[in-house]
Design a protein that fits this description.
CATH architecture: Alpha-Beta Complex
Shape: elongated
Number of domains: 1
Largest sheet: 7 strands, mixed
Strand content: 25-35%
Number of strands: 7
Number of helices: 6
CATH topology: Maf protein
Length: 199
Amino acid sequence: MARADLILASASPRRARLLTEAGLAFAVEPSDVQEGVDDSWLAQEAAEALAERKARAVAQSHLGENCLVLGADTIVVLGEGENERLLGKPEGEGEARQMLERLSGTRHRVVTGVSVVRTRDGVARTAHEQTWVTMRPIRPAEAAAYVKSGEWKDKAGGYAIQETADAFVESLDGGGFDNVVGLPVALTLGLLAALDSPA
């Protein structure tokens, strides 16, 4: 059986770069799925559900073909249990500043859901990875400069660890840097291998 074509259901240049660095060839077809999060969801459930929704939305255009469609969604999480609060992508500078203020001096989680859909039969494999991020206190002037830079745009939690926001981060635990960027590569490769096998 020939290896299935791979489609990334995301416009994220960060995810595309991680896949390229992993040696994969792929096409890009962003999904138009709404990414809003609801605090009634658990972070892992929300990330996995949104990732699979994105993958299935693109897979609909390739039914019966020999393709694998990869969807991913990243959520930043403050607190645990009843106090858990999910942070998606800020909609403007004011919300970006609020998110940075809430994350300043915290130990929070970044959860990325990954889903792969096989278009010839609709079978999906979905999982998630989480990383604990310890962030130092951010001074108001630093937050203002960061918001003005625009790096927060299209970033869960309003910050990009792979850019200048790495200066705010003291440590990572329990998951990889790539997960915080937006795509846990080892997890993704495992899901792709599982669905690309002849079995």
